[in-house]
Task: structure prediction
Amino acid sequence: MNIQSGKGVRRNRSELFAQEEQSDSEENNVPPVTEVTPREEEQEQEHEQEQQDHRPMKKSRHNQYKSNRTEYEYALPEEQSKKSLLRNNKSTANTSWEVEQFNKASQLPLSNEDKIIENNADDYEFVFDETQFVNYDDPDILSGDEEQESLDLTSAFNNEIAELRKNLPVYNYRADFLTTLENNQVLIVVGETGSGKTTQLPQYLYEAGYSQNNLAIACTQPRRVAATSIAARVAYEMNVKLGHEVGYTIRFDDKSSKDTVIKYVTDGMLLREFLTDPQLSHYSAIMIDEAHERTISTEILLGLLKDIIVTRPQLKIIIASATINAEKFSQFFNNAPILNIPGRRFPVKIHYTKSPEANYIQAALTTIFQIHTTQPEGDILVFLTGQEEIETMEEALQDSIGKLGDQIEPMLVCSIYANMASEVQSKIFNKPPPGTRKVVLATNIAETSITIDGIKYVVDPGYVKQNKYNPATSMESLVVVPCSRASADQRAGRAGRVGPGKCFRLFTKWCFYNELDANPTPEILRTNLTSVILLLLSLGINDLLKFPFMDPPSKQSIIKSLELLYALGALNSKGKLTKTGQKMTEFPLDPILTKCILMSSKFGVTIQICCIIAMISESSNLFYRPKGKAELADARKAQLHHQLGDHFTLLNVWRTWKDYGYSKEWCRDCFINYKTLQRSKNVYDQLIRLCKKVGLIDSVQETRGDDEDRMIQKALLSGFFMNVCRLSRMGDGYVKLKGSTSGCFIHPSSALYKTKPKLVIYYELVLTSKEYMRCCSIVDDKLVREMAGHYYASKG
DNA sequence: TTGTGGTGT
Result:
């Protein structure tokens, strides 16, 4: 293999494909079990050579693009399309859907209608001042004379599709995979997007007999939709009914049976299974997929698995990850071997700005129009940090589009973020009318959770809004920070799903390599650990400081959690789990919330507290507030407000919704997220079930005495006794009764925002533009003395 | 005067 010359070519290129950079580092750092085949290496080189050849010509045409370009066509050679159609017909049940996606891509009906007709060059002069353009380090990238290149790329990929049809990439590694796993207990698989690992590897295990003796194969996913859709796909490939041999288990939905031999589960679900079966004795093999995402559940699973492989030498562990830090997983599992499986995706050309952009919103806006006026068809995906930014950008875009009128081709702007009414959300999946370019403004949700078809251009300002928990102040902060290199590459990859794409990074190449972290901070270092610690304790792991975390959380953060668990009565003075603590582990909730439920039966308000708790963790995205209708939404919300505060407002919402027969229309009228309420109802049903199980209640008959409100306040205080704030005499700020003294404020979304009561209890403290208390209700001194006297009696 | 994204028998 001629790696040397390949590298030489790479260094000469000013622009690199993100995915190639990744495989480069793999070759350097990781001892691969299997390497890229010589054929693929050759193809890559050819392709690179081609770009080299084009470069001088492009340079000479710099700044002349307006006069040179009037019209160009984006099409595929007819024969290629036919061939892939033919292959598609021969498809077998064993081919993964990635293949279909790629074939679909090559079959796009590109007729004359799809020609991109450029406006008269003079119009641009009027509209755009070139000196205002965002300055990218390769001045030719937006000159648009690359049709030849993209044609060749497409045909190269059509050839690759031929390979794919016969064999998925992962298939070539089937034997390697099985023999390596036979000789090793743990195997790290680096499989890029399109390798087929998630659907195929569990099937290989099944075919190799790992499901004999009543044992099953589990594969974890960080997201519910992934678990369900992949299970459905694999059931289809194996020609069995979903829920029989192949199934899935996620919270509120279990499609598995005794016959299930391949089971897809959420990582949180497998973690819960440890509680009932600490050796996971039902499984012969466990695949942790998307391990690079490092969700808390995955992280804990890895630590627990490291533990049980000692006592279960027959159990096989596969860690599947898509990024370059496979080495870290390997080291964690005593230098487990690494199997590299190349992926199949279209190349994405990365462009950086020449100098840092001071205002990335402005730069993004300009870039969108640069792409729109100079690039062939294909939709644009823009990564922004939050709802507000998206709304600002949408307004600015619509404004410009309106001013430009028919001087530019039509453009359709749509947005997506998690807290958006679901009816509006689906708009982003609609195909724009022919000749119209779709611009999708998205948060991180488009990085991993949802995939939008037709994206060819990605605009990446390089920022993300991130949550960080500070155990010392028990406050979260939600701040905009630069994203990691891994995130930036993931974003870029979104442009290469249907064909070769381009990614415009609004930062410099130097910044990418020198200022961005390689990977995002693992979630476990950013969150409140209390429930995790309780889970570990209930699994009998008492020496938490010795638990094998890949990235151990700070000692302070662990100790803070232990202190809280002790204060809640979950631990005794020796650090052992109490009966209360054992009951708490039954509930899939933060221990503070569980404490409220456990105490509620004493006050006869268990049903009410379960309603409130079921809604509280989702309360931040219960109400939505569309721009333009913000005042109406506020008014509707105000009608549901309860004078005692937000906890009571939640209960009001619940009861009213119930009175309206759990109506969807009512939700829409009140600007309430129906999906959120539905999820809360599922949680509520689960909580009631658990309350019956641990003997808190024996019926769902709600008793409502005259002192109901007071009883609810007591139950809330029994868990949230440390979250009490007093209005400061100086101004409008609040100060914690005990603990940190800096001022905080009632969140503007609160029912108490204007009331400003003397004493409030809050659910959480979040630092955004200010330190805000979210979800607040009124309490009084007498209540606090009665319910939290023990906590406030000591100094502080 | 306002909330990135997930998850839990």
Notes: Chain A has 31 helices and 23 strands. Chain A has a mean pLDDT of 80.
